[in-house]
Amino acid sequence: MGRIVVISTGGTIASRWQGSGFAADAQGTDVLATASVPRGVTVQVVDLFSVNSARLTTAHQLTLLRTIREVLADPGVDGIVVTHGTDTLEESAFLLDLYHDDPRPVVLTGAQRPLDAPDGDGPRNLHDALLTAASVRDRGVLVVFAGQVHAARGTVKLQTLAVDAFGDPSGAHIAKVEAGRIVARRQPERPAPLSFPEIPDALPRVDIVMHHCDGDPLLLNASVAAGAQGIVLVATGAGNATPEIVAAVASAVSRGVLVAVTTRVPAGPTAEIYTHGGAVDLAAAGAVLTRTLRAGQARIAVLAATLATTEPAERADVLRHALGGPVPALTTAPLARA
Protein backbone atom coordinates (compact mmCIF):
# COMPACT_ATOMS: atom_id res chain seq x y z
CA MET A 1 0.00 0.00 0.00
CA GLY A 2 2.91 2.37 0.50
CA ARG A 3 5.87 3.68 2.44
CA ILE A 4 4.85 5.66 5.53
CA VAL A 5 7.15 7.71 7.75
CA VAL A 6 6.17 7.81 11.43
CA ILE A 7 7.42 10.92 13.23
CA SER A 8 7.44 10.39 17.00
CA THR A 9 7.03 13.45 19.23
CA GLY A 10 6.06 11.93 22.60
CA GLY A 11 2.74 12.18 24.41
CA THR A 12 0.73 9.54 26.25
CA ILE A 13 1.19 7.05 23.42
CA ALA A 14 4.91 7.09 24.29
CA SER A 15 4.51 7.43 28.07
CA ARG A 16 5.66 5.11 30.84
CA TRP A 17 5.32 5.22 34.62
CA GLN A 18 7.90 7.51 36.23
CA GLY A 19 7.27 6.72 39.89
CA SER A 20 4.75 9.47 40.54
CA GLY A 21 2.98 9.75 37.20
CA PHE A 22 3.35 9.08 33.50
CA ALA A 23 5.64 10.94 31.12
CA ALA A 24 6.81 10.49 27.54
CA ASP A 25 10.08 8.59 27.30
CA ALA A 26 9.63 5.82 24.71
CA GLN A 27 11.21 5.86 21.29
CA GLY A 28 9.12 5.72 18.15
CA THR A 29 10.19 2.12 17.47
CA ASP A 30 8.83 1.12 20.89
CA VAL A 31 5.51 2.76 20.06
CA LEU A 32 5.38 1.17 16.61
CA ALA A 33 6.08 -2.28 18.11
CA THR A 34 2.71 -2.16 19.93
CA ALA A 35 0.69 -1.77 16.74
CA SER A 36 -0.32 -4.03 13.89
CA VAL A 37 1.05 -2.60 10.63
CA PRO A 38 -1.47 -2.83 7.76
CA ARG A 39 -0.64 -5.33 5.03
CA GLY A 40 1.55 -3.84 2.30
CA VAL A 41 2.70 -0.86 4.40
CA THR A 42 6.38 -0.32 5.14
CA VAL A 43 7.31 2.05 7.95
CA GLN A 44 10.28 4.27 8.67
CA VAL A 45 10.48 5.89 12.13
CA VAL A 46 11.87 9.36 12.87
CA ASP A 47 12.38 10.25 16.55
CA LEU A 48 11.98 14.02 16.51
CA PHE A 49 11.50 14.68 20.23
CA SER A 50 9.74 13.09 23.20
CA VAL A 51 7.74 15.45 25.41
CA ASN A 52 4.38 15.59 27.14
CA SER A 53 2.42 17.77 24.75
CA ALA A 54 1.43 20.31 27.41
CA ARG A 55 5.13 21.28 27.33
CA LEU A 56 5.14 21.75 23.57
CA THR A 57 6.33 25.14 22.30
CA THR A 58 5.93 27.00 19.03
CA ALA A 59 9.57 26.14 18.35
CA HIS A 60 8.70 22.42 18.64
CA GLN A 61 5.75 22.85 16.28
CA LEU A 62 7.77 24.72 13.68
CA THR A 63 10.49 22.05 13.89
CA LEU A 64 7.79 19.48 13.17
CA LEU A 65 6.51 21.57 10.25
CA ARG A 66 10.01 21.82 8.77
CA THR A 67 10.68 18.09 9.30
CA ILE A 68 7.48 17.12 7.47
CA ARG A 69 8.48 19.32 4.57
CA GLU A 70 11.89 17.61 4.45
CA VAL A 71 10.36 14.12 4.60
CA LEU A 72 7.91 14.89 1.78
CA ALA A 73 10.80 16.05 -0.40
CA ASP A 74 11.38 12.32 -0.95
CA PRO A 75 8.97 11.21 -3.73
CA GLY A 76 9.18 7.65 -2.43
CA VAL A 77 7.26 8.59 0.71
CA ASP A 78 3.52 7.95 0.41
CA GLY A 79 2.38 9.57 3.64
CA ILE A 80 3.29 10.62 7.17
CA VAL A 81 1.95 9.67 10.58
CA VAL A 82 2.79 11.88 13.56
CA THR A 83 2.40 10.37 17.02
CA HIS A 84 1.60 13.26 19.35
CA GLY A 85 0.30 14.06 22.81
CA THR A 86 -3.40 14.79 22.95
CA ASP A 87 -3.26 17.99 25.03
CA THR A 88 -2.06 20.19 22.16
CA LEU A 89 -2.56 17.89 19.18
CA GLU A 90 -5.35 20.12 17.81
CA GLU A 91 -2.97 23.08 17.64
CA SER A 92 -0.13 21.23 15.91
CA ALA A 93 -2.53 19.60 13.44
CA PHE A 94 -4.03 22.93 12.43
CA LEU A 95 -0.63 24.61 12.09
CA LEU A 96 0.53 21.82 9.77
CA ASP A 97 -2.71 22.01 7.78
CA LEU A 98 -2.36 25.75 7.15
CA TYR A 99 0.87 25.11 5.23
CA HIS A 100 0.27 21.63 3.80
CA ASP A 101 0.50 21.84 0.00
CA ASP A 102 1.03 18.19 -0.90
CA PRO A 103 -1.60 15.60 -1.93
CA ARG A 104 0.06 13.05 0.34
CA PRO A 105 -1.55 12.87 3.77
CA VAL A 106 -0.18 13.88 7.14
CA VAL A 107 -2.06 12.05 9.89
CA LEU A 108 -1.80 12.83 13.59
CA THR A 109 -2.72 10.32 16.27
CA GLY A 110 -1.95 9.51 19.87
CA ALA A 111 -3.48 7.82 22.88
CA GLN A 112 -5.40 8.49 26.04
CA ARG A 113 -3.82 5.53 27.84
CA PRO A 114 -0.07 5.01 28.30
CA LEU A 115 2.21 2.75 26.30
CA ASP A 116 2.11 -0.29 28.60
CA ALA A 117 -1.59 -0.15 29.52
CA PRO A 118 -3.22 -3.57 28.98
CA ASP A 119 -6.30 -1.83 27.54
CA GLY A 120 -4.33 0.80 25.68
CA ASP A 121 -5.88 2.66 22.76
CA GLY A 122 -2.56 3.58 21.15
CA PRO A 123 -2.10 0.37 19.12
CA ARG A 124 -5.47 0.68 17.38
CA ASN A 125 -5.06 4.41 16.78
CA LEU A 126 -1.60 3.91 15.27
CA HIS A 127 -2.81 1.08 13.03
CA ASP A 128 -5.73 3.20 11.83
CA ALA A 129 -3.47 6.20 11.25
CA LEU A 130 -1.08 4.08 9.16
CA LEU A 131 -4.01 2.72 7.15
CA THR A 132 -5.34 6.25 6.58
CA ALA A 133 -1.94 7.59 5.55
CA ALA A 134 -1.59 4.77 3.03
CA SER A 135 -5.13 5.10 1.65
CA VAL A 136 -6.22 8.72 1.20
CA ARG A 137 -5.06 11.69 -0.85
CA ASP A 138 -5.88 15.39 -1.15
CA ARG A 139 -7.50 15.78 2.26
CA GLY A 140 -4.87 17.85 4.01
CA VAL A 141 -3.80 17.11 7.56
CA LEU A 142 -5.97 14.62 9.43
CA VAL A 143 -6.54 13.45 12.99
CA VAL A 144 -7.30 9.75 13.52
CA PHE A 145 -8.71 8.62 16.85
CA ALA A 146 -11.05 5.88 18.05
CA GLY A 147 -11.90 4.70 14.54
CA GLN A 148 -12.77 8.13 13.18
CA VAL A 149 -10.92 10.36 10.73
CA HIS A 150 -11.20 14.10 11.35
CA ALA A 151 -10.09 17.14 9.38
CA ALA A 152 -7.49 19.15 11.29
CA ARG A 153 -9.53 22.36 11.03
CA GLY A 154 -12.08 22.57 13.81
CA THR A 155 -11.13 19.31 15.51
CA VAL A 156 -10.48 19.69 19.25
CA LYS A 157 -10.05 17.49 22.29
CA LEU A 158 -13.51 16.93 23.75
CA GLN A 159 -12.77 14.41 26.50
CA THR A 160 -10.06 14.57 29.15
CA LEU A 161 -9.84 10.80 29.67
CA ALA A 162 -12.22 8.90 27.36
CA VAL A 163 -10.68 7.18 24.35
CA ASP A 164 -13.02 8.88 21.84
CA ALA A 165 -11.23 12.10 22.66
CA PHE A 166 -11.50 14.18 19.49
CA GLY A 167 -14.19 15.72 17.34
CA ASP A 168 -15.40 18.92 15.73
CA PRO A 169 -18.22 20.36 17.88
CA SER A 170 -19.48 22.32 14.86
CA GLY A 171 -19.17 19.59 12.22
CA ALA A 172 -18.96 15.86 11.51
CA HIS A 173 -15.91 13.65 11.04
CA ILE A 174 -14.86 13.12 7.42
CA ALA A 175 -14.36 9.34 7.41
CA LYS A 176 -14.25 6.26 9.58
CA VAL A 177 -12.11 3.15 9.73
CA GLU A 178 -14.28 0.11 9.11
CA ALA A 179 -13.32 -3.49 8.34
CA GLY A 180 -9.77 -2.57 7.37
CA ARG A 181 -10.66 0.25 5.00
CA ILE A 182 -11.38 3.96 5.07
CA VAL A 183 -15.03 4.85 4.48
CA ALA A 184 -15.25 8.49 3.40
CA ARG A 185 -18.14 10.76 4.43
CA ARG A 186 -17.14 14.17 3.12
CA GLN A 187 -14.28 16.23 1.71
CA PRO A 188 -12.86 18.78 4.16
CA GLU A 189 -12.98 22.44 3.15
CA ARG A 190 -9.55 24.08 3.21
CA PRO A 191 -8.29 27.47 2.01
CA ALA A 192 -5.23 27.57 -0.25
CA PRO A 193 -2.11 26.73 1.77
CA LEU A 194 -0.03 29.58 3.16
CA SER A 195 3.50 30.09 1.89
CA PHE A 196 6.08 28.34 4.04
CA PRO A 197 7.14 30.84 6.70
CA GLU A 198 10.47 32.34 7.48
CA ILE A 199 11.21 31.18 11.02
CA PRO A 200 12.92 33.87 13.12
CA ASP A 201 15.03 33.11 16.17
CA ALA A 202 12.76 35.33 18.29
CA LEU A 203 9.26 33.99 17.74
CA PRO A 204 6.27 36.34 18.01
CA ARG A 205 4.29 36.27 21.25
CA VAL A 206 0.61 35.38 20.81
CA ASP A 207 -1.56 35.25 23.94
CA ILE A 208 -5.06 34.03 24.84
CA VAL A 209 -7.28 36.06 27.20
CA MET A 210 -10.71 34.87 28.40
CA HIS A 211 -13.72 37.05 29.22
CA HIS A 212 -16.06 36.21 32.09
CA CYS A 213 -18.42 37.93 34.53
CA ASP A 214 -16.53 40.86 36.07
CA GLY A 215 -13.93 40.53 33.32
CA ASP A 216 -11.94 43.72 32.72
CA PRO A 217 -9.16 44.75 30.29
CA LEU A 218 -6.35 44.11 32.82
CA LEU A 219 -5.02 40.88 31.27
CA LEU A 220 -5.50 42.06 27.69
CA ASN A 221 -3.59 45.25 28.44
CA ALA A 222 -0.91 43.24 30.25
CA SER A 223 -0.49 41.09 27.16
CA VAL A 224 0.03 44.17 25.01
CA ALA A 225 2.52 45.54 27.55
CA ALA A 226 4.39 42.21 27.47
CA GLY A 227 4.97 42.63 23.74
CA ALA A 228 2.30 40.38 22.26
CA GLN A 229 1.99 40.71 18.50
CA GLY A 230 -1.31 38.85 18.56
CA ILE A 231 -4.09 38.21 21.07
CA VAL A 232 -7.03 35.82 21.00
CA LEU A 233 -9.97 37.06 23.05
CA VAL A 234 -12.14 34.16 24.22
CA ALA A 235 -15.45 35.94 24.47
CA THR A 236 -18.88 34.84 25.68
CA GLY A 237 -21.81 33.79 23.50
CA ALA A 238 -21.35 34.48 19.81
CA GLY A 239 -18.36 36.72 20.54
CA ASN A 240 -19.35 39.28 23.17
CA ALA A 241 -17.53 41.20 25.90
CA THR A 242 -17.88 44.71 27.40
CA PRO A 243 -17.41 48.30 26.21
CA GLU A 244 -14.26 48.50 28.35
CA ILE A 245 -12.75 45.48 26.60
CA VAL A 246 -13.77 46.89 23.23
CA ALA A 247 -11.81 50.05 24.07
CA ALA A 248 -8.79 47.95 25.04
CA VAL A 249 -9.05 46.00 21.78
CA ALA A 250 -9.19 49.23 19.78
CA SER A 251 -6.10 50.49 21.61
CA ALA A 252 -4.24 47.23 20.95
CA VAL A 253 -5.14 47.28 17.25
CA SER A 254 -3.98 50.89 16.99
CA ARG A 255 -0.59 49.71 18.27
CA GLY A 256 -0.34 47.04 15.56
CA VAL A 257 -1.51 44.06 17.62
CA LEU A 258 -3.59 41.51 15.73
CA VAL A 259 -6.70 40.66 17.78
CA ALA A 260 -8.94 37.67 17.08
CA VAL A 261 -12.24 36.88 18.80
CA THR A 262 -13.45 33.36 19.50
CA THR A 263 -15.94 32.07 22.06
CA ARG A 264 -15.89 29.88 25.13
CA VAL A 265 -19.10 28.16 23.91
CA PRO A 266 -18.28 24.64 22.66
CA ALA A 267 -20.07 24.77 19.28
CA GLY A 268 -21.29 27.27 16.70
CA PRO A 269 -19.82 30.32 14.98
CA THR A 270 -19.00 33.77 16.27
CA ALA A 271 -21.31 36.40 14.78
CA GLU A 272 -21.89 40.14 14.76
CA ILE A 273 -25.25 40.34 16.56
CA TYR A 274 -24.88 42.41 19.74
CA THR A 275 -23.56 45.87 20.50
CA HIS A 276 -22.73 47.48 23.89
CA GLY A 277 -19.49 45.50 23.95
CA GLY A 278 -20.62 42.67 21.72
CA ALA A 279 -19.12 41.27 18.53
CA VAL A 280 -20.49 44.18 16.49
CA ASP A 281 -18.32 46.57 18.48
CA LEU A 282 -15.31 44.25 18.68
CA ALA A 283 -15.27 43.91 14.89
CA ALA A 284 -15.63 47.69 14.51
CA ALA A 285 -12.64 48.07 16.84
CA GLY A 286 -10.53 46.03 14.42
CA ALA A 287 -10.79 42.51 15.84
CA VAL A 288 -11.27 39.53 13.51
CA LEU A 289 -13.96 36.99 14.39
CA THR A 290 -12.72 33.41 14.03
CA ARG A 291 -15.97 31.72 12.94
CA THR A 292 -15.94 28.18 14.40
CA LEU A 293 -12.25 28.05 15.36
CA ARG A 294 -11.79 27.76 19.12
CA ALA A 295 -9.04 29.26 21.22
CA GLY A 296 -6.09 26.95 20.53
CA GLN A 297 -6.55 26.86 16.76
CA ALA A 298 -7.46 30.56 16.64
CA ARG A 299 -4.12 31.27 18.30
CA ILE A 300 -2.35 29.18 15.64
CA ALA A 301 -4.09 31.18 12.89
CA VAL A 302 -2.95 34.43 14.50
CA LEU A 303 0.57 33.04 14.89
CA ALA A 304 0.67 32.14 11.19
CA ALA A 305 -0.45 35.66 10.29
CA THR A 306 2.30 37.22 12.40
CA LEU A 307 4.87 34.99 10.70
CA ALA A 308 3.63 35.93 7.22
CA THR A 309 4.25 39.69 7.23
CA THR A 310 5.12 42.66 9.41
CA GLU A 311 2.28 44.90 8.16
CA PRO A 312 -0.70 44.94 10.57
CA ALA A 313 -3.38 45.25 7.87
CA GLU A 314 -1.81 42.42 5.88
CA ARG A 315 -1.64 40.28 9.00
CA ALA A 316 -5.38 40.72 9.39
CA ASP A 317 -5.86 39.66 5.76
CA VAL A 318 -3.72 36.54 6.28
CA LEU A 319 -5.78 35.71 9.36
CA ARG A 320 -9.01 36.06 7.38
CA HIS A 321 -7.57 33.78 4.72
CA ALA A 322 -6.62 31.20 7.35
CA LEU A 323 -10.25 31.34 8.46
CA GLY A 324 -11.41 30.56 4.93
CA GLY A 325 -11.22 33.88 3.08
CA PRO A 326 -9.51 34.84 -0.21
CA VAL A 327 -5.75 34.70 -0.66
CA PRO A 328 -4.24 38.01 0.54
CA ALA A 329 -1.92 40.07 -1.65
CA LEU A 330 1.14 40.82 0.48
CA THR A 331 3.26 43.84 -0.25
CA THR A 332 5.68 43.61 2.66
CA ALA A 333 8.42 41.08 3.25
CA PRO A 334 7.85 38.16 5.61
CA LEU A 335 9.08 38.48 9.17
CA ALA A 336 12.85 38.73 8.87
CA ARG A 337 15.15 36.28 10.55
CA ALA A 338 16.44 37.68 13.84
Automatic annotation (TrEMBL):
Any single biological process term in GO: asparagine metabolic process
Active site: 12, 86
Native organism: Streptomyces kaniharaensis
Annotated GO MF terms: asparaginase activity
UniProt protein name: asparaginase
Reactions that this protein is recorded to catalyse: L-asparagine + H2O = L-aspartate + NH4(+)
Residues holding substrate: 53, 86-87
Record EC number: 3.5.1.1
Stated family: Belongs to the asparaginase 1 family.
All copies of domain Asparaginase/glutaminase C-terminal, residue ranges: 205-316
Keywords tagged on the record: Hydrolase
Cited SUPFAM superfamilies: Glutaminase/Asparaginase (SSF53774)
Keyword Hydrolase among UniProt keywords: yes
All copies of domain L-asparaginase N-terminal, residue ranges: 3-188
